[in-house]
Design brief:
The complex is a heterodimer of chains A (422) and B (337). Chain A is mainly α. Helix content of chain A is 75%, strand content 0%. Chain A contains 15 helices and no strands. The longest helix of chain A is centred in the C-terminal third of the chain and has 37 residues. With 337 residues, chain B is α/β, with parallel strands linked by helices. Chain B contains 9 helices and 14 strands. The longest helix of chain B is centred in the middle third of the chain and has 18 residues. Classes of the chains: A mainly alpha (422), B alpha/beta (337). At the A-B interface, helix 12 and helix 13 of A face helix 2, helix 3 and helix 5 of B. The structure holds adenosine-5'-diphosphate and magnesium ion.
């Protein structure tokens, strides 16, 4: 293989005819590849198309800048791979190099944002840093992680698809402010409840907001709520389940009782009650959802630990004099984590839906904040009047995001379990 | 020869809903260094319970209610939170930390089922690393790896396979890995609880052979638990026959096969198929072992015994030593203890 070919990896690998004969590659694969490529092209083209009509006027530059960042990271990735083949660096140092590139690029992006439009430095900087990073992560995933995931068969593809969906939405959200055609927070930018037209491709809401802008920008709240609630749930539910069930005794009984009583409430109703208590806001919404979900983690982890800790290999470890912490973190936890991750993917998806539900009953956010949940709320009244577009687009986005999280979770679960590797 | 292990009046009870079952009842035995003791008997007679008691690992709801288990230590065992001094230690007096230091280091235990005895989430190498680290926190990774590979090599597993996950090994290889893990820290006593029961006959023979070799190599003292007397014929120096939680007979292997003393041993031997004598009629022991929750008075074997006398139904026979220095618990051999 030539020197350049060694640096070609990941999905890009398939772009070179290795044996000089395309026919040898399966037709299905080529079809799949073209679907992916066309999909990517459509997405890139629509981003650029949007960027050209952007409200901020510099949308195209923002998107271009982040693509440039991704390109630099791609080059760094290729350089790393090249050096790795030469045997000049270890894999760990290679990743260190990539991390350094990410950090340096991030700092440069922050400065660029600061000097570009000083009045809007904060939001521009974060868009540039976030957008560049997310696109960079996408590139690294496709270039370096994809071959490894591919080895794992269908689970790898599923994970990859899920991650790509989620990251694409994250990217869209991060740069949204700069590429939207209208200010998504403003009312009365167009007619009230107008159907899709050339000027407003997805139509307008009943308050005269541009639906396209709101659809692009509306993911932020959902993502934040989902992320915060999942982190909170996971970091409380899993250790609680692990500790309670591993030690057993009265502590276990008390915690189980509390968890079961929370579990007994219908989730959304409880979330509504808590959200009403805490008041509106992203963090409060996340906390309300977290409280509802902690028992799920706790229960799944607990029941798994109870099973796993009686398994012969745990006993075998005890017999060999293994330390408690090894048994807990090496024997019990890894065998429990896959189930917790399944709950996590469901939790992500459900957090999004619950967040939509909270906004739907008016416990979410004020009307000016672009949010799919809000549009769904308002749209539901309009839908009866035949204005299908008001709920269709936000609804579809919510479904896609939830799907992305579910796919990623399912795939990861399978990959993280070596037993299923074959 | 000195004794490595001395068990005195060991009794283990399982508290169940139906009542208390004596899994092990007043067992006493001495185990000389570098000898192999075979522990045989029908399923449910308390072999595993006895083996686990030595590790203080009787499964819930079991509890050691009485007895002494003295183990001879040749060297002090130093562990982060203290020291166990050399000489005889009573395992019953040790706390959790001390037990942990002892397990794996002085006594190794191998379970019946190799398919589930390895953690599916970590590689074989990690298993070795952890066990060695647990007992010697300062050990270097490379050193542990070297030692693990050496052990695997000795067991006929190519050292490169150390990075494999358990599911990539066959049953026989997994049991070899388990044996390797057990021996990684050079323990003095190896307790193997039916180590080959779940394997096929050829692999069984190979593994028993390897264990015999390792025993020589590492100066091991072994307790081999099995329900297969044929296995013991080749490997054990002495055999203890258990029935209903008690030891019925303890004799040198050859003597036991040639001239079994206890009626139960005789019946057991008659039920072993012998390929060299195809004409031999296979017999089985009529009846079933007594319920441990509701023990019968007298000798536990009396309802199934051919030689039952009146005394058998009232008085439990103790283990007595006959003139050939063999131990037997049966009224046929008269004499008080
Ligand atoms: N977990 C348990 N709960 C209740 N009783 C048990 C338990 N384990 C073993 N026993 C009792 O102890 C007796 C001896 O069991 P065990 O030592 O496993 O026998 P062996 O290994 O000889 O087949 C059994 O007959 C059973 O009644
Ligand atoms: Mg057993």
């Amino acid at each position: 293989m030539s020197q350049q070919a060694k640096a070609i990896s990941g999905v890009f690998y398939f772009l070179i005819p290795t044996s000089g004969d395309w026919k040898e590659k399966s037709r299905n694969f080529l079809i799949g590849l073209s679907i992916v490529l066309i999909g990517v092209l459509v997405i890139v083209a629509s981003f650029i198309g949007l960027a050209l009509r952007s409200n901020s006027g510099i949308g195209i530059w923002v998107v271009g800048y982040t693509i440039l960042c991704a390109f630099i990271i791609l080059i760094a990735g290729a350089y790393r791979r090249f050096k790795l083949h030469e045997g000049l660096i270890t894999p760990t140092r290679g990743w260190f190099l990539i991390t350094v590139v990410f950090i340096v690029l991030g700092m440069i992006s922050a400065l660029v944002g600061f000097f570009w439009i000083p009045e809007e430095a904060a939001s521009l900087s974060s868009a540039l840093v976030g957008g560049g990073t997310v696109l960079g992560v996408i590139v690294i995933l496709l270039y370096d992680v994809f071959p490894q995931l591919q080895d794992r068969g269908s689970a790898g593809y599923v994970t990859m698809t899920g991650l790509m969906i989620v990251l694409a939405i994250v990217y869209m959200t991060v740069v949204s402010w700069w590429i939207v055609p209208y200010d998504p927070t403003r009312l009365d930018v167009g007619p009230y409840g107008a159907p899709p037209s050339a000027q407003f491709p997805l139509g307008t809401t009943s308050l005269g907001q541009d639906l396209l802008s709101r659809t692009i920008a509306g993911g932020g709240i959902m993502l934040q709520v989902a992320l915060i609630s999942v982190v909170v749930c996971f970091s409380i539910g899993v250790p609680l389940g692990l500790g309670a069930s591993y030690r057993g005794g009265n502590v276990d009984k008390v915690i189980s009782l509390v968890m079961d009583s929370i579990f007994a409430f219908p989730g959304l109703v409880l979330a509504i009650a808590i959200a009403a208590m805490l008041g509106p806001g992203v963090v409060n919404m996340a906390l309300a959802i977290a409280v509802v979900y902690i028992p799920s983690y706790f229960r799944v982890v607990r029941s798994q630990v109870l099973t796993v800790k009686e398994l012969p290999y745990v006993e075998a470890a005890i017999v060999m004099g293994a330390r408690d912490r090894d048994i807990l973190f090496r024997y019990v936890l890894p065998n429990v984590l896959p189930s917790a991750i399944v709950v996590m993917s469901i939790n992500f998806a459900d957090a999004i839906l619950t967040a939509a539900g909270l906004t739907f009953v008016g416990l979410g956010l004020p009307v000016t904040v672009p949010d799919w949940g809000w549009d769904l709320t308002f749209g539901s009244h309009q839908y009866i009047a035949g204005k299908w577009w008001v709920i269709t687009y936000p609804g579809v986005m919510i479904v896609i995001l939830a799907l992305g999280f579910t796919l990623a979770g399912e795939g990861l679960n399978e990959i993280l379990t070596p037993r299923l590797k074959e | 020869m000195t004794d490595l292990l001395r068990i005195e009046d060991l009794a283990v009870e399982y508290k169940t809903r139906r009542g208390t079952a004596r899994g092990v009842d007043n067992v006493s035995l001495n185990l000389e260094e570098n000898k192999t003791l075979g522990l045989a008997g029908e399923s449910g007679c308390g072999k595993s319970t006895l083996g686990r008691s030595i590790m203080r690992l009787v499964p819930y709801p079991g509890k050691i209610v009485n007895g002494k288990i003295d183990l001879l230590l040749h060297e002090d065992i130093v562990f982060p939170k203290g020291v166990i001094e050399k000489g005889f230690v009573n395992i019953m007096d040790l706390n959790e930390e001390e037990l942990r230091a002892l397990r794996g280091k002085e006594i190794a235990y191998i379970f019946q089922d190799p398919m589930t005895s390895l953690n599916p989430m970590i590689t074989v190498e990690t298993h070795f690393q952890e066990i060695m680290k647990a007992h010697d926190p300062d050990i270097k990774k490379e050193e542990a790896l070297d030692r693990a590979q050496e052990i695997l090599d000795g067991l006929g597993i190519s050292p490169e396979r150390i990075t494999d996950y358990p599911h990539q090994f066959s049953g026989g290889m997994r049991q070899r890995v388990m044996i390797g893990l057990g021996l990684a820290l050079r323990p003095k006593l190896l307790i193997a609880d039916e180590p080959t029961t779940s394997l096929d006959v050829i692999v069984e023979a190979q593994i028993l052979e390897e264990m015999a070799e390792l025993k020589e190599l590492f100066n091991l003292t072994m307790i081999l638990i099995t329900h297969n007397l044929g296995v013991l014929a080749q490997t054990a120096d002495d055999i203890a026959i258990m029935y209903s939680g008690r030891i019925m007979e303890l004799s040198p292997t050859e003597a036991l096969f040639e001239d079994p003393l206890h009626p139960y041993t005789q019946a057991l031997l008659e039920s072993v198929p012998d390929v060299s004598k195809p004409d031999k009629k296979l017999s089985w022991i009529p009846g079933a072992p007594p319920d441990l929750v509701d023990p019968i008075p007298g000798c536990m074997y009396n309802p199934r015994c051919k030689h039952t006398m009146d005394i058998c139904k009232t008085t439990q026979p103790g283990l007595i030593m006959n003139d050939e220095e063999r131990l037997v618990a049966c009224h046929l051999f008269g004499g008080e203890k």
